[in-house]
Amino acid sequence: MPEPERRIALLIDADNAPAAKIDVILAEVARHGAANVRRAYGNWKSPHLKGWEAVLHEYAIRPIQQFAYSSGKNASDMAMVIDAMDLLYARNLDAFAIVSSDADFTPLVMRLLTDGLKVYGFGERKTPAPFVNACSQFIYLEALGAAHADAEPGTAPARPRNAKELRGDKRLVQMLRRAVDSAAGDDGWANLGLVGHQIGNQASFDPRNYGYRKLSDLIEASELFELRRDNQIVWIRERPKRRAGKAAQAAPA
């Protein structure tokens, strides 16, 4: 008997998200489950949200009106947080998908995680690191590619980072090495599926943010690991040079 489909609440901060990306966002959410709740928050009297108004009915998204009570304050953020907590306490969801480039939602993400729910984040590359890192998985909208031919400039898919750029990202390298070390057997080889699981438990990560469709492509491009394909299974281990150096350090004097 197949497992029941995961129920996801899609909450959109319309003030801080491009409407032109909604189709690719929904396609990505569909990979994890069904978006049973779809809400977009903002002051719908604002001309800034005209782009969102055009897609609300097409994608069955419920607009939540929130007036700006004070100049310079975003009341939509508070309304979205209150709704998220109401949905959390209803106990009929498995995950949340939050669309925003605003770091103010970081505490909300951390609260949802403490109840064991997954949180999938979507935002532009300008999104502050605390919000990105807090999510179970965060995907830059630019990495999902341009949703429409008339999308805003700068929405092309992310350029694949070369080996030098990948190795220069200390956080990424440390995360990959820890995951491979944790999943490796006595021979040093680790199953790619287990490596991906370890990475998912460590931090928010998606290879598309680095310009690669699959984790194996990113790992191979880094030139830090060896890859071996056995039918449908991919195995990974550190390159011999580094492994030899580690063995020499561990050898008794």
UniProtKB/TrEMBL annotation:
Under the heading PROSITE patterns, the entry gives: HTH_OST
- The HTH OST-type domain sits at 168-240
Q: Record's InterPro entries?
A: LOTUS-like (IPR041966), NYN (IPR021139), OST-HTH/LOTUS_dom (IPR025605)
Gene Ontology MF annotations: RNA nuclease activity
Q: By what name is this protein known?
A: Uncharacterized protein (TIGR00288 family)
Source organism (scientific name): Vulcaniibacterium tengchongense
